[in-house]
Specification:
Glucose Oxidase, domain 1, Arc Repressor Mutant, subunit A, Aminopeptidase, eight-stranded mixed beta sheet, elongated, alpha/beta, binds zinc ion, about 30% helix, 13 helices
Length: about 425
């Protein structure tokens, strides 16, 4: 995953254009993505697919002809979605088009102007301080023209047609944690889950932020009924603690699964309620959809100083943190996959476990007590109204231990699955 972040880092991405396409193409062959191209001007609910943006070059030259700001050196230098411009300006005339971070004089800010036609440059405060009065030649050689919005989609079918949605935004240029960590983790989830047997179907979306999920939801309005759980992946590569943002409803199976996993994974995980601000959970959680989609991240957007600056680079993301995040996502998937409801076939008083070999089986094990306890919980609560996740929560035991106990009880015919009506 770290290598994936490093490989994609230099590409200049935006919500449309060749950088976005190139990013999705690089995910092949690990992720068999279907690329969708949606024409400029397409109406999607209250929005319209914007013109496609591409960059050839962009720079500011001083009076000696030296490039003092150059997109070729860092793609954050150009205000994302800048319209073409060519001219000679004084520093005073140039200033309204320059963006810096005075508090962080060495960092370049990341700024966009998707929905207002403008041009500009982002630079470090130190660079700006080094620019003397005088005239500057400016070139913004971009194109903003009718074209397409691209997004990638991948479906891994399971036994059931109900779906788990995993969505990440892939529209930021050279930013590592915000954006690329999510792209890398989502890709790794695709590769991992494609090799496993699946109960649910899994749909993965690699979309430009905001407009991407709006486009997908507009084109798949009816399909959303199939979504039983979903996660928005973002900011999963830094060393911060886990942070889970609940779905709009807040108490769906997805919410309970994620909270359960975080409670048992250790560390200082934080659970937050839904809010209509953040990443693409805003669209999935709009009232007309109200999908059971939450977001599992580490340090959320806007709460680390490097956020949306050139300091969100490869040094902020760690391979071990990415791996730990992937493990956490897979634990949530494990709960969603394994959460079934059973009925105890011997409900009047406890069944005799010793006679069925269950005590002797666990007798020599160091974890005997826990296994026995898990079996007692499963037998007691399996009255057809409690799922295995309900039982794990009530027993305060990790889900996999409850599943293991269930398997043993199924093996001796003490349980039967209660199929949903
Ligand atoms: Zn962002």
């Amino acid at each position: 995953m770290y290598q994936r972040v490093a490989e994609l880092y230099p590409i200049c991405r935006s919500i449309t254009g060749d950088g976005f396409r190139e990013t999705l193409r690089r995910l092949h062959p690990d992720v068999a993505l279907q690329l969708h191209e949606v024409p400029t001007g397409t109406r999607v609910f209250d929005w319209t697919v914007p013109k496609e943006w591409n960059v050839r070059e962009a720079w500011i030259k001083d009076s000696r002809g030296e490039k003092v700001v150059d997109f070729a050196r860092h793609n954050l230098h150009l205000l994302n979605y800048s319209v073409p411009f060519c001219g000679t300006l004084t520093l005073e005339e140039l200033r309204p088009h320059l963006y810096t971070l005075p508090d962080r004089p060495d960092w370049i800010p990341y700024r966009t102007s998707y929905y207002k036609e403008d041009w500009g440059f982002c630079l470090s405060q130190r660079q700006l301080d080094g620019m003397s009065e005088g005239s500057y030649e400016v070139l913004v050689d971009t194109s903003l023209a009718d074209g397409y919005l691209t997004y990638g989609e991948c479906l891994l079918p399971g036994e059931e047609t109900d779906e788990v949605l995993v969505s990440c935004h892939a529209c930021h240029p050279s930013l590592a944690n915000d954006n690329l960590s999510g792209v890398a983790l989502t890709s790794a989830l695709v590769s991992t889950l494609s090799r496993l047997e699946r109960r649910w179907s899994y749909r993965f979306l690699f979309v430009p932020g905001t407009i991407g999920p709006i486009v997908w939801l507009a084109r798949n309005d009816e399909r959303t009924e199939k979504i039983r759980a979903g996660l928005v992946v973002a900011c999963v590569g830094d060393s911060g603690s886990f942070n889970f943002k609940r779905s709009r409803r807040g108490n769906t199976e997805l919410d309970r699964a994620a909270e359960h996993v975080l409670r048992h994974i250790g560390g200082d995980a934080v659970v937050e309620d839904f809010s209509p601000y953040g990443y693409d959970e805003r669209q999935y959680g709009s009232p007309g959809f109200d999908l059971p989609v939450g977001s599992l991240r580490r340090t959320p957007h806007g709460r680390y100083p490097q956020y949306h600056t050139s300091a969100d680079d490869l040094s902020l993301v760690r391979a071990d943190c990415l791996a730990e995040s992937l493990r956490c996502y897979l634990e949530i998937v494990r709960v969603l996959e394994g959460n079934r409801t059973y009925v105890n076939l011997n409900p009047k008083c406890e069944p005799q476990l010793g006679r069925r070999g269950l005590y002797s089986l666990v007798g020599g094990r160091t974890d005997a007590e826990r296994r026995e306890m898990a079996m007692l919980w499963v037998l007691n609560l399996s009255d057809g109204s409690n799922s295995l996740l309900d039982i794990a929560e009530r027993a305060r035991m990790p889900f996999p231990e409850i599943v293991a106990a269930t398997r043993e009880l199924l093996g001796v015919g003490l349980l039967e699955e209660r199929k949903a009506a």
